[in-house]
User: What shape does this take?
Amino acid sequence: MTTLGLIGSGHIGSQLARLAVGAGLDVVLSNSRGPETLSDLVAELGPRARAATPAEAARAADIAVVSIPLKNIGDVPAEELSGKTVIDTNNYYPQRDGIIPELEAEETTTAELLQSRLPDSHVVKAFNHIYSRELTSHALPAGSPDRRALVIAGDDEAAKAEVAALIDSFGFDTVDAGPLAEGWRIQRDTPGYGPRLDKQGLVSALAGAKRYRDA
Assistant: This one.
């Protein structure tokens, strides 16, 4: 049985937990405020869910999800995630995260920053360009007409395949944008950020993305 460990259980994390339980996975939830603050969500999710500390959630995870403000990625437990696939859902919001010079200069991406924090993990970018409420309301079985597609990006092919299979079980197709360095193509204010698109539409949106400096 696969266990999804959530480092951050807010809008995105809680929705992914709902999808995971619906797909028959176990989930271990965590946040910065303590396991006791997640009791209502655990009760809603049922016996497949439990709350823990971030380190415990990371240790229990077969696949982990980091869904916390970008400014806090220094708190992500690295040792416990060693060797594991880690999904990065983050976006850069300067008004929340403060100015991050290398992102302002477009020298790197949010997922590459997390990969630097987790050198022994396999980071895959996913779930950052869909509104949280749509994760449960837009999911459809495989083969459905106009099934929504979501982007993945990563440097490890096996990890990307693992995340693509997870996304399929959650009710979405995937489009592989390439390595983590290409994750900018689905950042804020790009054509694929936000709208509901099928695979063909999302491929076109990625191709039409421009760097902020070129927009």
In short: The chain has a mean pLDDT of 96. The first strand starts at residue 3 and ends at 7. Residues 157-170 form the longest helix (14 residues). The beta strands are 3-7, 26-30, 49-51, 63-66, 85-88, 122-125, 149-154, 173-176.
